[in-house]
Amino acid sequence: MKEILNKLIWHPNYDISKAKIWYISRGMPDDLDFIMGDEIEKLEPYYVKSRKAIIPYHRIVKIEYEGRVIFSRI
Questions:
Q1: What percentage of the chain has pLDDT greater than the value 90?
Q2: Residues whose CB is less than 8 angstroms from the CB of residue 55 and which lie 6 or more positions away in sequence, other chains included
Q3: What are the phi and psi torsion angles at 25 (to 5°)?
């Protein structure tokens, strides 16, 4: 999944701002929350750092791009 995020960030055919990243967030409705791709500040070795949260990769359950699911564990 880190490879997918890297591709969305760096490949010239993609725009990370069109991505929606869903992750497990205890206490939220259905224990799920999301960030938009343009909220990502940095991809670290074990987590995504955003303005909203630090998200370990194992908590990411779905990535959508332009409304289409491109990664899913659910």
A1: 91
A2: 21, 23, 35, 47, 48
A3: -140, 100
Residue whose entry in the numeric block shows the structure tokens 């999301």: 34
Q: Within 10 Å of residue 31's Cβ, how many Cβ atoms? A: 12
pTM of the predicted structure, to 2 decimals: 0.92
What is the phi/psi pair of residue 60, to 5°? -75, 125
Find the radius of gyration of the CA atoms of the chain. 11
Total number of domains in the chain: 1
Q: Which domain holds residue 59?
A: 2-72
Strand order through the sheet with 47-50 = 40-43, 47-50, 54-56
Mean pLDDT per block of 10 residues along the chain (74 residues) reads 95 97 93 96 97 95 98 93
